[in-house]
Amino acid sequence: MNTMKTKGLTLFIFLHIFGLVIAQNTNTGNWMQYFGNKKINEKWNWWHEVQYRNYNAVGDLEQLLIRTGLGYNFSKTDNIHIGYAYILSEPYISGTPDKNTLVEHRIYQQLINRNTFGRGTFMTRLRFEERFFASEFKTRFRAMNWINYPLNSKSITDKTVYASVYHEIFLNGKGPTFDRLRLYGALGYFINKKVKIELGYLSQIQTNKSRGQWQIAAFTNY
Q1: pLDDT score of 20 more than 80
Q2: What superfamily does domain 3-221 belong to in CATH?
Q3: Rounded to whole angstroms, how far apart are CA atoms 216 and 202?
Q4: Sorting pLDDT into bands at 50, 70 and 90, what band is 13?
Q5: Which residues pair with 123 in a beta bridge?
Q6: Nearest by Cα to 188 from 136, 221, 152, 145
Q7: Which of helix, strand or coil describes residue 91?
Q8: What pTM did the predictor assign?
Q9: Within 13 A of 86's CA, how many CA atoms are on the CB side?
Q10: Are residues 128 and 110 in contact, defined by beta-carbon separation less than 8 angstroms?
Q11: Dihedral of the alpha carbons of 129, 38, 125, 109, in degrees to the nearest 10
Q12: Residue 29: what pLDDT?
């Protein structure tokens, strides 16, 4: 890795960890997640995921998200993707122990660029969402930068331990422009080149509040 890339990576990780530290978390919950990517051929792939989010350790549903989509590799580093997501949310009614139940149907389009630097990988994802609720329609833009870096080997192989960090900003198409900022740090383990698991911590920062959540994730690439 050249000097400029090393300095850039160091600055990125420092700012990321600083953001995690200063975020004021009002409560802590967890996300349990599964992500799958099926290679159809050299050009096409099928993406699928399930996320189960809790307000506390387990059993107090915040959100259930099921997402799937079809991707196309138009170069060795770039993938375009269109998909659909079903989201069931149960937010608390302010000042009460009661919840609302909200259902969202979401269509999204995204562009992913993946590159390597030294033994690490860097991913940028740009996503646009059309969000359909029972009585309203919203749009949102999301931009993510994500780094994975092997810790005990020079490349991703079987039994590789790696560090993972990302940040993602959400911008609304209507109303207040800023929606939220996510900062994430984790340790992961490649069981083999097709399966990995990850344990991390996410800080989600919004205009008037922020919260932290532990994340457990499993990834398959087959």
Answers
A1: no
A2: monomeric porin ompg (2.40.160.40)
A3: 11
A4: low
A5: 114, 146
A6: 152
A7: coil
A8: 0.86
A9: 3
A10: yes
A11: -30
A12: 85
